[in-house]
What does this fold into?
Amino acid sequence: MEAVATLKTETHKDHHHVYVPEPELIDGKPTFKTITDVICGVPEGKMPRLWWILFGVSFALMVMYLSVIAYLVYKGIGIWGLNTTVGWAWDITNFVWWVGIGHAGTLISAILFLFRQKWRTSINRFSEAMTIFAVICAGMFPLIHMGRIWHAYWFLPLPNSMQMWLNFRSPLMWDVFAISTYLSVSIMFWYVGLIPDLATMRDRAKPGIRKILLGLFALGWRGGNRQWQHYEKAYMILAGLSTPLVLSVHTIVSFDFATSIIPGWHTTIFPPYFVAGAIFSGFAMVMTLVIIAYWIFPQIKQIINERHIDNMNKIIMVTGMMVGYAYGCEFFIAWYSGNPYEASIFVKRATGPYWWAYWSMVFCNVVVPQIFWIKSMRTNLTASFIVSILVNVGMWFERFVITVTSLSQDFIPSSWKYFTPTIYDVACFVGSLGLFMTLFLLFLRYMPMVAMAEVKGVLPHANPHHPDHAHNGRAHHDEKIEELATKNGGH
Amino acid sequence: MNELASQSAEDLKKQAEATSAKAKEILIEEAAEGVVAEFDNPAALLEAAEKIRDAGYQRFEVYSPFPIHGMDDAMGLKRSPLGYIVFGFGSIGTMGALLLQWWTSAVDYPIVYSGKPYFALPAFVPITFELTVILSAFTAMVGMFALNRMPRFFHPMFYSENFCKKGSDDGFFAAIFAWDKKFDVREVKRFLQSIGGKNIEILHRPLNGEDSSK
It folds into this structure.
């Protein structure tokens, strides 16, 4: 009886504890030091053989890519398979594909941050890096498609001897601003996130050139709370800005098509459809890269674990179904609008000369991700890897189908032409993969691939209210904190 | 003279060492730029911050490898003004973008494209938005650097070897600096000890002959 009474008083006292245990996000109950050791250990150690093999292949592809670009600039874009009817093909396909891939990085780093999805901390550095590299790859294609690449500065609003200004009413101009803003903001967001981790690496480095460089880029970060205060504010603002930005970027990319009057392009569903597709393919690419990183550095499995794979696969499945819905909706509108050109182009997409591309797209994007209804498949690495590759194949076909089917069979049947890529089309695409993977592998080699400070912050004992810290006399303190928490609108 | 002679060389040496140690201590105290103490965990640091605040110190700082919730209130900090700064510069981005597009399209080189008016506001929205975002983001980053006095490659905290080793890894530190009005090196040392600080160190530039290679 007495025991019960004591228990009651204790419960009553404990009422003031605001500590709510959260699901543990990182396996194996790590300490703060384990996180530092695992993550810093990668760039501090020697690269495994697999890293060198992958880097060798990627680097060779990148060199091939740069050589092809040199030849393309010398010879002109006639070396691609473009013709008078299909004036845009693999280049715009690759451009949209790469930009789309980048979007998942921003979704993970910014949108999931705003939604307080703490599991994102294990993969956000990764995916932000992916965003930057993907946008670099994307930006290459419009540049080289210009042919006269030395005129690229004509895109900028600079006073010039022709006394002309840009056409700000053109979606292609919007694209220039959107992509360059996106690249710059992604780099700033990434760098701000990196600063505390660069300081950690600086403090661990042995005196020498590496320590000096890390010190320079860490800008003298000390981790004082006044610094953290402004830092967190800046991070929040950058996340808040990146969220509408990422939506605007793919919306504007879709305007490249949607503001024209080509059947199959002139539809209002394009912006949301493109954004969903972008996140779909981007998550698939994050998955591919995470699994590649697993192969190279098995020790990171502790930090990026099954739960992350599971969550990402759920998002892949959901966005895949959104994309599937958009495919269906396009057909419905083509019929419902009563526009014969619109209807004809959609029938031709599914049954015309490019039927194989259309049905590959539907298979990869709509059918394949359905496997993730099964929980064991969502955490199975082999299945995840295969699906992630197929999704990106499917998303590439989606952009190809949109671009090429609508162009190759336009209003006048006499100008209909079939597009066949040349070896240079293929070389540019494969080469851009080489550039992407080279940058990504270098990132793994030199940078902390997981945001250490953020992961430490979501460990259970990072919370000052964790019961392990109870001997510090939390009891009297918690009331105050709770009061403050209520005042600030939640903890 | 006789007295000195009567002492053994051993004793003299001990005395000299004691004097030199005392002198060193005084020199260190005179050179003090702050006192740092280590705490066990985020909770202990939070509590230490409250006690330092309540003791009336202002020029103090707590260091942790990740931001700790509730620390701003524990230290008695005001909200970061960064949001207002970003809003200001973001608005300049908005206005600048509209002015640029209006002047180039409707004033300096008016030409009709695709039947749209010279000043076609809906068509100007995307670029206005993008320029607002880029200016705001740039301000958020540079403003944060400015508020944090970055880059600043040296700070008295880096005199502490223990802090350099653990501060960005898993150490929790609090420091009170010499530019606080209330700063008194012995008093601060005692105070930090009394609130549970460990590994208390005086932050000072290396004395002559001391290894300064860290």
Notes: Residues 480 and 486 of chain A are 10 Å apart (CA to CA). The radius of gyration of chain A is 26 Å. Chain A has a mean pLDDT of 86. Chain A has one domain: 27-460.
